[in-house]
TrEMBL record:
Record function comment: Mitochondrial intermembrane chaperone that participates in the import and insertion of some multi-pass transmembrane proteins into the mitochondrial inner membrane. Also required for the transfer of beta-barrel precursors from the TOM complex to the sorting and assembly machinery (SAM complex) of the outer membrane. Acts as a chaperone-like protein that protects the hydrophobic precursors from aggregation and guide them through the mitochondrial intermembrane space.
Domain annotation Tim10-like: ranges: 10-64
Name the UniProt record assigns to this protein: Mitochondrial import inner membrane translocase subunit
InterPro entries: Mito_inner_translocase_sub, Tim10-like, Tim10-like_dom_sf
Lineage: Eukaryota, Metazoa, Spiralia, Lophotrochozoa, Mollusca
Amino acid sequence: MSNTLANETHQRSLKDFLTLYNVITEYCFSKCVSNFNERRASTNETSCVDICTDNYVQYNQRFMFNFVDHQERRKRDLERIAVEEAAKAAQAAPTEQVTPAQEQQIQKVAELLENLSSASSPSLKL
């Protein structure tokens, strides 16, 4: 089962890479190559393609870094909201007897709160 998942993940990564490669190639070629009278690309065209691909790759890396950062913040916010809602629900019914399932849920909420407080200032590693 996990081998199939790993294979699918690998295929997806390869597909994403090839799609990005094709987009970069098409964009930079159409932007930089204009003279089809010569067999080889001119020095200016080669330089333009190099700069174009470098800029595109740098942009893509920054975009993905920001995307991952945004997803992590969003996940933390959703966890915080879930914890707050669980705490409100626990406060709303204090007179009821706590069942073992509710006790487990309270314990999970407490652990989440502890994790959130310890991860309140995360540092992203590159």
